[in-house]
Structure formats: structure tokens, C-alpha cells
């Protein structure tokens, strides 16, 4: 019997025995693909061999539908809590993370507050912490209250050996896992990097992709961009372009550049590049503000560094960071932007 979709609540038949549904015979969908119905477990088991191929194919289609249809909007944590505008990408180059309130504030609002003589936290007005010990104590106090942002942030400190902590990859992964379970999107991306590199865990690239996909479906731009590069490594250029198209329209310049390169190589259409360019321009326009323009004019390009944070050069990664994601075939993608691993800058 063919595996065909069964819709509605009418007299569908069992895919194995052909028995029609009725008040006495309740048919149930295949829980994996929902393409066919069965009158009971025995018929489902008997039909499994015939249905297996179609079932797997439909399950894969459903996963793709979910992967590419979700995560087109940036999450709330990507918006400055003061001006409520999306923070320019990469966020760690255009914002500072305040451990006093666990808020990420755009450079524009931070500089505007300082110009008005406000050198306390621009969001919660807390006096700046004196040293790493005070900062760590504040973070750990929030960790004890199960704050996912604080738990993830502490994990990043262990991952890199910051704030006076000894580098401990295993501890970092434990914290990332806890933060992810509590809802941290950045923690999902951090777990993706850890599993891809094998930092603190046994290397598992398939599981890394799962974490990147979960983060991407919740709007994490770097994870979406990374999925595109991973698909390129597999030779799936069409899938890569679909990922980059989403992230480019969210304001990711490296994704736009990747689509441009794909277009020049005949791996993306002119329409796809035009759509990505238009979407990217719209996203960039949405992120503009007078305060951000003033901050850029005042501080130059090193916005976060000038505020005491950590700066990454745009679309470039250090040799150490590049180990977190698959290396590219330089002959094929010489000018593509690098894969990204997001981070959070700490206000001084």
C-alpha cells in the first residue's frame, strides 16, 4: 500500500490492513511523519518496512521546514534595553555587557549617558564595579538565582580563563548546558562551538550542528551564518545560501558577502543576491540612531574597545577562534567571511 497523506477526520483507512476508521476503529497517525494512519500498533509494526523510506523522507522535510521557517527575527536580547533598537552586528563590537544587571547596552546609549555625566550603569544606575573580584561576585550572585544570562556569562569566563578564573573547558560546558536549559540562546551557540572543537566534551560535530540549529531557529544570527558554512563544507551550496539569506536579512554583513561570492561562482541566483542585499540594507537602516552615529564619530571604529570591552575585527577571527568551526576550502572560498562564534563584551 502506498504511503499517502491522510487529511481530515473522515473515513481514512489503515495503511496496512485497509480497515476504515469509524467510531469503533480509531485510526492514529504515524507519530513521526503523520503521512499515514493505523488501526493499531500491530499494523504499524507490520507496515514499518514498507513505510520506513517515505517516513524518513517526510521527517527530514518537516525538520527543514522548521529550520528554515523559524528564527527570522532577532531575539529580545539583541535589542538595547534603553533605546529598544536592535544592536548592530557583531553585537560584541557595538555593545557592552553590564554584570550589575546582566543587560547588554548599545555603545550609542552608553556613550550618550557618559556625555551627560552619568558614569554609573546606563541601565540600572549601579556604580561601576572596582575589580574582577567584585565583578565575579556579582555574577555568581546572579548565578545562584538561576539567571541564564549570568550562568552563560560565567561559562564564557571559564571557557577563556577571564575574571581571575582558571581556564576550565569542562566547567564552561556544564554552565553552558545549564544556561541553555534555562533558555539562553547564546549558550546554545556556545555549546555548538564546544562540541565542534571538542572543548570540555568529546568532539561531536553532528551534535554541534544540532545546537547551532536550535539557536538559529530562535534568531541567533551567528549560528545561522555558521550553519551556512557547515553546509558549504558538505557541498550543499543551496542549503548554505538559504541560511545566509536569512542571516543577511537580519543584518549580517558576512552572510551578504558569502551570498555575493556564491553568486559570482554561479552557486546563487541574481534574485537571491538582490533579495539578500535589500534585506541587509533594511536591517542596517533599522539599527541606526543619532546616538550611535555620535558614538562612532567620537570613538572611531573601535567602539567597544574604547569603552573597555574586547574587540574583534569585523568578519575576521583569531587563529584560536577559527578552530571552533570547520576550515574552508581556500581554493573555493578564498574571499568568504569566516564562520562566527559570538561573545559578549564586558563593560569596564
Q: N-to-C SSE series?
A: EEHEEHHHHHHHHHHHHHH
The fraction of residues in strands falls at under 5%
What is the CATH C level class of the largest domain, in words? Mainly Alpha
The CATH architecture assignment of the largest domain turns out to be Alpha Horseshoe
Overall 3D form: globular
Major β-sheet profile: 2 strands, antiparallel
**Unreliable segments of 5+ consecutive residues:** 5-11, 309-336, 344-348
Radius of gyration: 24 Å
Instruction: Give the overall pLDDT as a whole number.
Output: 84
- Which secondary-structure class do the elements indicate? mainly alpha
| CATH domain topology of the largest domain | Serine Threonine Protein Phosphatase 5, Tetratricopeptide repeat
Total DSSP E strands: 4
Q: Could you tell me how far the N terminus lies from the C terminus, measured between alpha carbons in angstroms?
A: 68 Å
Fourth-tier CATH superfamily name of the largest domain: Tetratricopeptide repeat domain
Helix content: 40-55%
Keywords: Metal-binding, Zinc, Zinc-finger
InterPro entries: Sel1-like, Sel1_AlgK, TPR-like_helical_dom_sf, Znf_MYND
Organism: Thalassiosira oceanica (Marine diatom)
GO molecular function, one term: zinc ion binding
Amino acid at each position: 500500500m502506498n504511503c499517502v497523506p491522510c487529511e481530515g477526520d473522515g473515513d481514512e483507512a489503515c495503511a496496512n490492513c485497509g480497515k476504515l476508521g469509524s467510531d469503533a476503529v480509531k485510526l492514529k497517525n504515524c507519530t513521526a511523519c503523520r503521512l499515514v494512519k493505523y488501526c493499531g500498533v500491530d499494523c504499524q509494526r507490520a507496515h514499518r518496512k514498507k513505510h520506513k523510506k517515505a517516513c524518513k523522507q517526510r521527517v527530514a522535510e518537516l525538520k527543514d521546514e522548521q529550520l528554515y521557517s523559524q528564527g527570522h527575527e532577532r531575539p529580545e536580547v539583541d535589542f538595547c534595553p534603553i533605546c529598544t533598537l536592535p544592536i548592530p552586528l557583531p553585537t560584541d563590537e557595538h555593545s557592552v555587557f553590564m554584570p550589575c544587571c546582566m543587560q547588554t547596552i548599545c555603545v550609542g546609549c552608553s556613550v550618550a549617558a557618559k556625555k551627560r555625566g552619568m558614569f554609573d550603569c546606563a541601565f540600572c544606575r549601579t556604580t561601576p564595579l572596582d575589580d574582577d573580584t567584585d565583578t565575579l561576585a556579582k555574577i555568581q550572585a546572579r548565578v545562584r538565582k538561576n539567571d541564564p544570562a549570568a550562568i552563560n556569562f560565567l561559562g564564557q569566563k571559564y571557557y577563556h580563563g577571564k575574571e581571575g578564573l582558571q581556564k576550565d573547558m569542562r566547567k564552561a560546558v556544564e554552565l553552558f548546558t545549564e544556561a541553555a536549559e534555562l533558555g539562553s540562546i547564546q549558550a546554545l551557540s556556545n555549546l555548538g562551538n564546544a562540541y565542534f572543537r571538542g572543548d570540555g566534551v568529546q568532539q561531536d560535530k553532528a551534535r554541534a550542528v544540532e545546537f547551532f540549529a536550535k539557536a538559529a531557529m530562535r534568531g541567533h544570527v551567528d549560528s545561522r551564518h555558521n550553519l551556512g558554512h557547515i553546509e558549504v563544507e558538505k557541498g550543499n551550496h543551496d542549503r548554505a545560501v538559504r541560511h545566509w539569506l536569512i542571516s543577511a536579512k537580519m543584518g549580517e554583513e558576512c552572510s551578504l558577502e558569502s551570498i555575493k561570492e556564491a553568486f559570482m561562482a554561479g552557486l546563487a541566483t541574481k534574485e537571491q543576491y538582490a533579495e539578500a542585499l535589500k534585506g541587509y540594507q533594511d536591517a542596517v537602516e533599522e539599527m541606526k540612531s543619532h546616538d550611535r552615529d555620535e558614538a562612532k564619530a567620537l570613538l572611531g571604529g573601535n567602539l567597544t574597545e574604547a569603552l573597555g570591552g574586547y574587540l574583534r575585527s569585523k568578519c575576521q577571527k583569531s587563529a584560536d577562534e577559527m578552530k571552533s568551526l570547520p576550515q574552508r576550502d581556500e581554493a573555493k572560498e578564498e574571499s568568504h567571511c569566516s564562520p562566527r562564534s559570538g561573545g559578549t563584551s564586558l563593560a569596564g
